[in-house]
Amino acid sequence: MSAAPPDSDAANDQPTIDRQEMAVDIACVGFGPAMGGFLTTLARSLLNPDGSVRLESASSPGMPLQVICYERGDGLGFGVSGAVTRARGIRSSFPGVDLTEIPMAAQVTKEKLVYLLDPLRASRRSFAFKAADRALRSLGLLFGVKHEAFELPYTPPFMRKHDGLVLSLGQFNQWVSDQVAASGLVQIWPGMPVAEPLIVGDTVTGVRLADQGTDLHGRPEPGFTPGMDLHAALTVIGDGPVGAVGRKLDAHANIGMPPGHESLEWALGMKMVVELRDDSGLEAGTVLHTIGFPEPEIFGFLYVHPDRLASVGIFVPSWFGSPVRTAYRYLQHFMLHPYLWRYLQGATLKSWGAKSLQESGRHGEPFLAGNGYARIGEGSGSTNVLAGSGVDEAWTTGVQLAEAVIELAEQKRAFTREELERTYVRRRRGSWVDTESKVAANARNGFQQGVVTGMIGMFFAGLTGGRFAPALRPVPRCVPSLEEAYRSRISASELKQIKEDCSTKGTSLHDRVMDRCGWPQIPLDGKLLISHQDALLMGGGVQAPPGFANHVIFRRPELCRECATKLCVEMCSGQAITHGEEGVPAFDREKCVYCGACLWNCRAEGDGACGNVEFNAGAGGLHSTLN
Amino acid sequence: MTNGYHIVVCGSVVPDPLQTLEPVSTPTGPALKNEMMLPAVLDPWAAHALYEAANLASKVAGSKVWLVSVGPKAKLQQVMMTIAQRVSFELVPVDASASGFADSHSTAALLAEAIQSIPGLDRARLLVFGGWESASRGAGATMQLVGERLGILDQFQGVDQLRVLDDAQPDGSFEVLERIEGGRHQVSVCAGPPALLGWATGNLPEPRNNPQIGMANMRTVMPALQKAKSLPLPAGGLHFLSASPPKQQRQTRVVKDLSPAQIAQEIAEWIGK
Q: pTM for this one?
């Protein structure tokens, strides 16, 4: 037992707590596709074919590199993604393996881009969208408009996944982790959150695990176990866009974000996995991308897995110019659209989930490597925002880092910034991930000015290899107040009355506003159309093990009291954040699915994504491997 | 007994209780739909038994804990990645079905055979632990059958507590609290091993994750899993006429500022409807 190094940042916070320490060669944070690619590639190279050590450990001489990975979620297959991927990187890691053998995986067989008209006439449509709807309705026969939808005859090449796979990310992660763990060469531990990186000067020396045996406020209780300090020559951060370790690194000068880089654009992806009825007519491998409904800014998808399972979901972007961001209700209206409902009617919910997507691409790319650390996956800005693709890119960055580590370990070189840039960053810059990322870099800039300009920008960027795209980086649009956003539909006095009523009854303000604007009540059927809380219970279950502190904290209560919009409440995917006493939101971690939407929806202090919400490492979350 | 207990915990994997389970008919009998795709956990009752075993082993010097676990190898591996962080044990895996529709006699036979094949196991120091109940089967029956196959006469079911009687110089005797009707316990004194205990919930909290325990366990767990024998689990003449999940009626309502008494009253009224 000993204290953390006296000059580390972590030690400065809690200098009096004695912590156990352990040394390994490589400490990994977060298990997703990026870490899957990293560990799969590395584990294959730790031993020679005769079983002798190929890459020797410095922390345990005579042994192979000691590699340990900690994942916050209770299981390694509890990831959430509506994944359709070209799987170029994944396939190259498994030559000769039929990846459709992975449960819920299917080869893409059919792909359509569909414009959904608004059958309810309740959405916030601009003049252009209203005109499009009107034109399509009046020329329906000519354009083949059916079921209030227009199937575009052309899917832009940058969006196509025709040679790819429909995956369940949960099943894919589980399949990968099974193989990695079975090697016995790498240890992966779920259910153990990592609190923060250990930083000395500009070097990452390892990570600190979360304290256990605390109350909800982090105060020690009987059985208190301080989080262990895990020292490592290399720390690999793959904890995603809202991961505690990655974001704490982001905040460090010279370690986090290069000048001019910032994660400004986000989206909340919310999905359901459903079991289709026998005669739905949808074949495994069918991929539908949708635009236009439930709001013009909200994109949707439907991917069909084998065995009559399908993933259906929506993305609510940060540039959605409305404070009414109740993704769950929008998802239900999306499913009820006539074009989709003819497939989904009679289906049963099997799973549900939500996650934040970092949509800044390379503009949100942090330093990819530094002394003692490297970053991979979505948190490293690998997501291609033009193609709408992140899983394969993340996987490939993990593979690239593993190849670099193997090279450095064979040469007995240290994991310094220079060495990692020479090996890992060079590989990444020379790969298709980076080439395509450059094309995508400014593709979405136009969305800050509106959906139509955004789509035109994307189209031109995609078709010209990124040469023509809106050049100006967006300044994040302030989300308008409810009064501003609905001025033309609801009078100020009526809105005031609605607000007071909802506040008194503790009911959702946004539901009421949507009701008032013509969105019909959801006809609950107990199978697919169920209440938000039932989705938590029936769609996989949420668990929050005792002994860990709350991971969502409202730093300065006075800022919450002043906040009129409280987007954190309205956009909380699990209804874990509710209106609390004296204007400060209340947090119930037993409903939190770790989507992280509260983090980037808080605009307090006017400092962008930082806001007033502290989103720390915590245990638990969704328990479903189908997402 | 001077060298501590040899504690063998029987604990199989079951689907995560948070999942919605759907029985289906297959050519070989009933099964759970997509069972291999569902997340799995160590049977909660067996997990209590394991934590009690680890606690006992930590108090009686020289004791050792084995975990005999039946389940598909891939599922066992997934579950071990969670369990092995918490307490020290040596895994004895049996690669076989962990279905809740398995015959208790067949399961007990597999478990007994696995226990008997543990090298160096001393019957004179043997305590067999397991779950009194199970999330997937009547474990009480299974554990009793395991005990009978091993010839263990001292059996206790519904155990909440085991207390070693002489901590200073343990002769192996211990006191057992077994659950009986009316929320009371029957107190028994056992002269010592061999004995079998089917645990209820016990009194111990779930142990904290400990990275050092995890690293030490994994050095033996993964090799053991790689060598796990794949064994058939005979139906044993068991025949199911039908299988269905318990009927449930769900009604969700979000309320604020209700006292526990008011909530309880409302639930009681709802049940009475």
A: 0.93
